[in-house]
Design brief:
By secondary structure, the chain is of the alpha+beta class. About 25% of the residues lie in helices and about 45% in strands. The chain has one domain (about 1-60). A hairpin with a 5-residue loop joins strand 1 (about 1-10) and strand 2. It is globular and about 35 Å long. InterPro entries: YhzD.
Length: about 60
């Protein structure tokens, strides 16, 4: 399992969520990250999902 970091921001830059979670691979992490954002109604807001190597897997501004 690999550890991924999901962060969402308000328009003024304040952090709304800053969570880590584990997934088998990048594709699984994208699915989990998207579900987490949708559940919190943050999918249309500014967010990013980073892999353990720092690669951005999801990004929206």
């Amino acid at each position: 399992m690999r550890t991924y970091k999901l962060t969402a921001f308000e328009k003024k830059g304040e952090v709304i969520i800053d969570e880590t979670f584990t997934a088998q691979n990048d594709e699984d992490a994208k699915e989990k990250g998207t579900i987490m954002l949708e559940e919190k109604n943050l999918i249309e807001g500014t967010h990013r999902l980073a892999s353990p190597t720092g690669q951005l897997l999801l990004f929206h501004s």
